[in-house]
Amino acid sequence: MSKRDAERKGTANHAGRTPDAITMLETVLADRERTLGAGHPDTLASRGNLANAYQAAGRTQEAIALFEPLLADRERILGSEHPNTLRTRANLANAYQAAGRAPDAIAILEPVLEDHERTLGGEHPSALASRYNLANAYQAAGRTQEAIATFEPLLADLERNLGPEHPNTLNTRGTLASAYQAAGRTQETIAILEPLLAGRERILGAEHPDTLATRGTLANAYQAAGRTAEAIAIFEPLLADLERGLGGEHPSTLSTRGNLANAYQAAGRADDAIAILEPLLADQQRTLGAEHLNALRARANLANAYQAAGRAPEAIAIFEPLLADRERILGVEHPSSLSTRGNLANAYQGAGRADDALAIFEPLLGDLERILGAEHPDTFAGRGNLANAYQAAGRTDDAIAILEPLLADLERTLGAEHPDTLGSRGNLAGAYQAAARTQDAIAILEPLLGDLERILGAEHPDTLGSRGNLANAYQAAGRAQDAIAILEPLVGDLERILGRDHPDTLAGRGNLANAYQATGRIDDAIAVIAPLLEDRERMLGAQHPNTLNTRNTLANAYQDAGRTEDAIAIFEPLVADLEQILGAGHPTTLGSANNLASAYQDAGRTDDAIAIFEPLVADLERTLGAEHPDTVGSRGNLARAYEAAGRTADAERVRSGEPSSFTLGDTAAGENTFIV
């Protein structure tokens, strides 16, 4: 076999046995540099081929290290307007984009497009390709409107010059659909993809790779539209077709396994998702290598699934080393490294480590603004995440101070009807409610529900979630009957649309029980909560946070019903379980300890209550601060216990602005809150 034949074979294997291809290409390049010289056209071509192979293997920094001097050499030897020089500039831009350096890519692609249009003409295939690449770079940089403004006329030009059924025309239609989806225009996305899929099946055949890819893209769009069952109905047979046609280890097959797992997770089937993601990670690491970008992504997806399943310690055990690996391989400023920092902070927050979460979120936001820009979608998300962390830490005013201007920025940059803008309105309403500004929350949630029904549809998960949030706000405003009037039909709709065992359905049942309890319908509340606990233990396991919270809620209902011993029988093992699973200082553990102490007090076991309340107040002051509402409430409970024990002086010493009660019940009311 000649060296040229060997190089062709190596290049063709980029999508398959990439390590073997790289070894071959490295050998060919060394031979050509030795025999032909560094400036020979074949040597330059070999450097470009090796750089492409590195990029295909996820070794982006090594690709850039080849492309940058190759571009300089080609400009010097061939001239800046030679087709190979222009092609190398485009390849370097693609590598920059893969490395998360979208602004650097754009800085190359904009003049490349100008050069192509000037030297070749605006309708030359290379000029059209440059417009396509530039639009992709705009989208990667979060400049979605500029991407759409480039894609739309490009598609019209391709349809006119190449025809509506040319592969490049079809590809551009699909990419425009992706840009619409990024802009929150999901219905327009689906309106493109459904006929695109039909066209590809007719023109290319059902098993053509582009047809298979379009099936996956349409499934993703269905999922984004809340049509999760339809997404799964595509992904499951698509995966079987890919395994049969391309093999179980082909990159497209592996990515579809991940997409199916994500759809299962969105459908509340966390265990099914994990059952896919655990072996998928092993396969990605074995076939691509542990440091390939897809293998790193598989680790992140598995960690997210663990977190969704309430397995926060396992998620953290993945995210911590993953962050170190991504920073080492991709660099600390790569978007994937930045997103992993945010994911780790979310995992810390889910594990009750609020200070650790804030220690990441606060500097992360500054980095996002500096690296990606103040108006990049990831920066907006970072602001929302920091606000949520402040709210979880009881710093509600700080959360509102972020969320109010964030909403204004989203309305200005994305539009009032973009999903992220709608989500931000929901988040601000949640913060107002946490700050006891219930009327302000309702003033947002009532029109928001109408907008969601109009934009996304009455059965979209976000719309259903907004109905639940409005019901919770009504309940907080003392309008429990209005809350029940929403929640009773909502639970039926959730069971019909999402399924009885979906997490949102379970949360809706919990919220309805809370509303019954608030109106004094304790028996009705218990009739909902008791089977809900059984379902959560069956679906999520006894140690899932929502299961633990439902045990707490049932115990509270028993206590309200005067069944104090039944309440204590739940609270005592629950506190022990929470201490073992979450730690003694976790807010949920402290809340349940407070509830146990209150049950002891109701049972006349005042000394047992005081024995819990005294260290509990100290723990809350240490972990949440002296002015946190839960700390203030627990001090009030301790004061009442002292009074019941005849220790009036001690009661006066600890009493400080106590609210009427302090309870940490079922967190189902917050499970449907929007997160930007």
Automatic annotation (TrEMBL):
Domain of life: Bacteria
Transmembrane segments: none
Annotated InterPro entries: NLR-like, TPR-like_helical_dom_sf
Renumbered residue ranges of the record's region Disordered: 1-21
Biased composition (Basic and acidic residues): 1-10
Protein name: High-affnity carbon uptake protein Hat/HatR
Organism: uncultured Solirubrobacteraceae bacterium
